[in-house]
Amino acid sequence: MTKKTYINGVGCISTQKTFDTVFLEEANVNHDENVLAIVTPAYKEYISPAASRRMAKGVKNGIVASTLAMKDANVENVDAIITGTGLGCIEDSEKFLKSILDNKEEFLTPTSFIQSTHNTVGAQIALLQQCKGYNFTYVNGAVSFESALIDAKMQIEEDEANSILVGGVDENGDYTTALFKLNGRIKADNTAPYDVLTSKTSGAVYGEGASFFVLENEKKDNTYAELLDVAIVNTLEVNEVETEIKSFLKSNHLEISDIDALVLGFDGNVDFENYYRNLAENAFAQTPVLYYKHLSGEYDTASAFAFWMASKILKTQEVPEIVKVNSVTKPAYNTILLYNQLSGKNHSFTLLSK
């Protein structure tokens, strides 16, 4: 009998206050910024100031989010740490590249290069916890977090691990952000209001964040949800998504009518909005449809924020007004489907149940 995978602890550091507060109670939608910055936790409560000074933003947020998740799950240690990240610690990469240019390739200190590799976050968490188990980082664009989930789920099913810390982390760097504005990935400056659902322009409202989860093979009193399934498809046409979702649900013995909420990755980019709008207006017109990137911003592992949100909804049975796309409601939320894609590629489908 393959073991089931339960979400037993969550920790989320995002562009909203998602710690020390009721579920999205203090969230607000920013219409004036095209790049959202993290709401900073008090790092000194989690990391010694001496260590903190040398750490990249993503590492610090990852440490705090993972500490929150483990505290939430009441676990002292885990068997494995699996991280997903799109750009890694991009700020330190920028620092290193800038110093190459500024110093004409001489007298370089390797520190910011060493600290900018994508697997720094997982490594630092392991060092702090003295976790000598499996430690892996997936860098797969917009499905980096889902790749980590699939790995964790397989390990739990095959009984290779009982308790796994899984997370998605990305940070903003000034230079990279400027490049993303140039190539149109981020909405142009001075074109506010930056609305995500009613946008008529291309490019996304960008963000950053770190969300971590403790996945375990047993159900506890504090369990949020069960992770039923995750699927990744690299390329799909707009008209293929619904068929893909139906066969994904069918493989889990479900139909569209069994889904109590659909969480979509609307990010304000008008060029790829139809991937979501098609579903919301047709196949899922009778389903509560939710969105989240107006709160979290768009980034490679933004879907980890959606995973956090869905876990919270299943546990609290409440859907905050601020995340509703339509006005459909359900008496109970038992099964939630998450669908995300970035620029028409890297489609992911994640299924959670109470």
Automatic annotation (TrEMBL):
GO terms for cellular component: cytosol. InterPro entries: Beta-ketoacyl_synthase, Ketoacyl_synth_N, Thiolase-like. Signal peptide: none annotated. The keyword Lyase does not apply. Pfam families: ketoacyl-synt. One of its GO terms (molecular function) is 3-oxoacyl-[acyl-carrier-protein] synthase activity. The keyword Metal-binding does not apply. It comes from the Bacteria. This is 3-oxoacyl-ACP synthase. It comes from Flavobacterium crocinum. The lineage of its organism: Bacteria, Pseudomonadati, Bacteroidota, Flavobacteriia, Flavobacteriales.
